[in-house]
Design goal:
InterPro entries: Nucleotide-bd_a/b_plait_sf, PTBP1-like_RRM2, PTBPH3_RRM1, PTBPH3_RRM2, PTBPH3_RRM3, RBD_domain_sf, RRM_dom. There is one protein chain. The chain has 432 residues and is an alpha+beta fold. Helices cover 23% and strands 28% of the residues. Strands 10-11-7-9-8-12 form a 6-stranded antiparallel β-sheet. It has a 5-stranded antiparallel β-sheet with strand order 18-13-15-14-19, covered by helices on one side. Strand 8 and strand 9 form a beta hairpin. Helix 7 crosses helix 11. The protein is globular. The two termini are 38 Å apart.
Length: 432
């Protein structure tokens, strides 16, 4: 064990765990003088008033597993004897108040724009500038107030709060930047002191210094939507340079899969032009996506996914496109293609199949029982929730595993429930 110290190092601190949760865990052992959340590492450093308080805490938790919000956390003495401002800078942002806030949004079920953030943060003072971007820690924003006191008030009032019911949780730290530079006024950045800035982003990050490095996208119609979704960066493992639009899917359960079910699955990652089941190889199919970027998303997120008892193989095809004919199914004009509207939102929620599916466009009077009844044939349902967002009914259904959720999605997306054609997608939420 490390040398005794009044600084305690806490590991496995999930995004759902707040500063208050940690304070409540350790306050029985003495006065806590400092707390630093190391969000990028899922860790925290906590300084007790004296070494004996820290020893009492560690001795107690030697025999009792500390848990917060159902998650086991692990504690040990820190190698630091004292938390100073310099040490805090090594690990995270300064704890010194600053007029610029660094905001991370966790459990982002709904898209968060500059306008949404401005609505949330402006009650605490005049917001001069606002920049959003995508980093490894998730969706983030830098918010510059006119006065430091306004930033401090906003942090105190909003830390750990949800923008929407049950999701989009705010994690707020003081930034160590002195001034934000904003080059464009659009849905990703805004300078409220200079309304005359241009809106054009030219397919690159407006703020490569804040987010990931600017990415040069292939020439495609949806460049602006991709930039809006990913803040100028791209998801890990996605190059953005693929120009092959057609995907070969193999190891399909040919007794259970048809073109429409494949459409429901692959349309999560882009618009579908055409799908062809290969008659000479019944467990193979070709899927032509709207462009190479969408095809790359589908290959990346669906390779190895389980569907109807089979593990899918998804690779780029040697065929540049699918020739129209009686043996192929055309979807190019389908109003069920998801990326004709709200493309940025749809890109942002691309992910591998999860245990949780999200329902939208539900009838206003729908009940939880009706939602469950609609999909329960596909597997064991662990949890459900029906809720309202912007006046529209939505639902979450959690299955026992990803395969059951995928089966429910491919079979029940775009079906009728209570007279409404429902929309189903995978949710990245871990729990309801």
């Amino acid at each position: 064990m490390a040398e005794s110290s009044k600084v305690i190092h806490v590991r496995n601190v999930g995004h759902e765990i707040s500063e208050n949760d940690l304070l409540q865990l350790f306050q029985p052992f003495g006065v806590i003088t400092k707390l630093v959340m190391l969000r990028a590492k899922n860790q925290a450093l906590l300084q007790m008033q004296d070494v004996s308080s820290a020893i009492s805490a560690l001795q107690f938790f030697t025999n009792v597993q500390p848990t917060i919000r159902g998650r086991n956390v692990y504690i040990q003495f820190s190698s630091h004897q004292e938390l100073t401002t310099i040490e805090q800078n090594i690990h995270g942002r300064e704890d010194e108040p600053n007029r610029i806030l660094l905001v991370t949004v966790h459990h982002m079920l709904y898209p968060i724009t500059v306008d949404v953030l401005h609505q949330v943060f402006s009650p605490y003072g005049f917001v001069e500038k606002l920049v959003t971007f995508q980093k490894s820690a998730g969706f983030q924003a830098l918010i510059q107030y006119q006065a430091q006191q306004c930033a401090a008030s906003a942090r105190t009032a909003l830390q750990g709060r949800n923008i929407y019911d049950g999701c989009c949780q705010l994690d707020i730290q003081f930034s160590n930047l002195e001034e934000l530079q904003v080059n464009y006024n659009n849905d990703r950045s805004r300078d409220y002191t200079n309304p005359n800035l241009p809106a054009e982003q030219k397919g690159r990050s407006s703020h490569p210094g804040y987010g990931d490095a600017g990415v040069a996208y292939p020439q495609m119609a949806n460049t602006a939507a991709i930039a809006a979704a990913f803040g100028g960066g791209l998801p890990p493992g996605i190059t953005g340079t693929n120009d092959r639009c057609t995907v070969l899917v193999s190891n399909l359960n040919d007794d259970s899969v048809d073109e429409d079910k494949l459409f429901n699955l692959f349309s999560l990652y882009g618009n579908i032009v055409r799908i062809k089941l290969l008659r000479n190889k019944p467990d193979h199919a070709l899927v032509q996506m709207g462009d190479g970027f969408q095809a790359e998303l589908a290959v990346h997120f669906l390779k190895g996914a389980m569907l109807f008892g089979k593990r899918l193989e998804v690779n780029f095809s040697k065929h540049p496109n699918i020739t129209p004919g009686t043996d192929s199914h055309d979807y190019v004009n389908s109003n069920l293609n998801r990326f004709n509207r709200n493309a940025a939102k749809n890109y942002r929620y691309c992910c591998s199949p999860t245990k949780m599916i999200h329902f939208s466009t539900l009838p206003q009077d729908v009940t939880e029982e009706e939602v469950v009844s609609h999909v329960q044939e596909h597997g064991a349902i662990m949890n459900t929730k029906v809720f309202e967002m912007n006046g529209k009914k939505q639902a979450l259904v959690q299955f026992e595993n990803e395969e059951e959720a995928a089966e429910a999605l491919v079979c029940k997306h775009a079906t009728s429930l209570g007279g409404s054609i429902i929309r189903i997608s995978f949710s990245q939420l871990q729990t309801i």
